[in-house]
Amino acid sequence: MNRDSPSNAACEIVLGIDLGTQGLKLVAFDAASAQVLGSVFARVENLTPAPGWLEQEPQQWWTTLCRLTRDLTAAKDIPRQAVVAIGLSGHMHSIVPLRADGSVAHNCIVWADTRSREQARRISVGANSPLWNPSIAPYSLAKILWLRERRPELSDEIAHILWSKDYLRYRLTGNIATEFSDASGTLMWDFAARAWDDALLADFELSPDLLPDARASSEAAGTLSERAAADLGLSVNTVVAYGGGDCACAVVGSGIPDSDTLLINAGTAVQVFEMRAEPRPFDHGDGVRYLFELGVEGRTFAIGALNSAGHSLEWWRRLLNERMTYAQFDALAADESPNPEGPIFLPFLQGTGTPRLLDGSFGSFVQLSATTDQRALARAVMDGVAFGVKHCAEALVKRGDLSAKKILFTGGLPKSPLMRQILANVFDGEVRFRSFSDMSALGAAAHGVVAAGLAPDARAWLAEFDYGEGRAASSPAFRERYTVTYERYKEWAARITSA
Known about the structure:
Helix content: 25-40%
Shape: globular
Number of strands: 24
Distance between the termini: 49 Å
Structural class: alpha/beta
Strand content: 15-25%
Largest sheet: 7 strands, mixed
């Protein structure tokens, strides 16, 4: 999967670009075989001008992308003519306001920025139109209203709102546009009409002219401009796809699972993805879930989230001993068997998520006794994270019945052999795991391949991709213990989050 091709000069190569909250990653693929040729990564500076604020400089994205592209093509001996397509993925909800001349009017306000909580609250009570998603600070509409209210001097200057990967595409091609997945993550999208929600925009006196046209993710947005080609060291004939939001690209990169499969991306945080046949507006009775366009095939998907998964393991490992390896951490936890009477950990260090969304610090150990030791607490943290993932999955699936679902994990969390077995035990069945983790970059590359006419669709291109898949089955010996402990976990979670 990751072997370098000996004949890069003869390959047609596609680049998958993934702009994340922490950094920018660039992965090169052989367009014919979907083989990974190489990758590079660089951190992106996060600016915090005030508590709760998080901004990034779009110019830094561009400078970093140009440097990484040149570094990768030089390291892998890739001629400029060999790169035939580029696909883009970027963090969703994050807005980039542009002036009419294309200059940046304000730094990108990143999705995790919470300055617009008050605007989000007013949206939830002031909208006459039904909301398709819960109104929370990460959504773009709240950020746009904050800018209008708190930076009124910019209102007349802002001509366009773009999203993170859209700004990169603008610098690549001069194309000012977005696509369905990022549009759907703004709170301003009408899923039924597959268009901007003009009625909702009217509710808040926003001009539709502020928002760009939305297209399908695998459509070609154009080719590299002469300036961009020179900056990147690539050919002006390189096709650029519209691309997608990072969550949507991760689903595409996974091969677009069927509705009978739950895709669970488990890393620092967890996202649980379920394909939806018929989107419907948000209902508080469903618990918190987020609805998005996939950007291809006219499909939509729902997401449930757990904010602190791998983050909880890292936090506890670091508290025990900063020099402890993850293998040592696993060995410590493996010495302890699951025990319904023992400690239970609630992984809410950075708020909750799904099924109930709460900001604040709710992480907790409960059922502690005088005999509780490090081994028991380490095992409680691992079990508690797995319980949190299952609780999120049950809330996402109608009636909470996971028995009919196939469970597919990606991300770094299940790379631990012990965590793989714990997840299988908690989900009480067979679960699958994939070692390849750059799903958003892979999905972005798939869009680029289709845009360049090298494959009929993303599914076809990814059909033979080697994800490095493994399986784990639950242990009948622990079934009763985990069943009882999970019920106690849910009882404690309800108590802690309602206090």
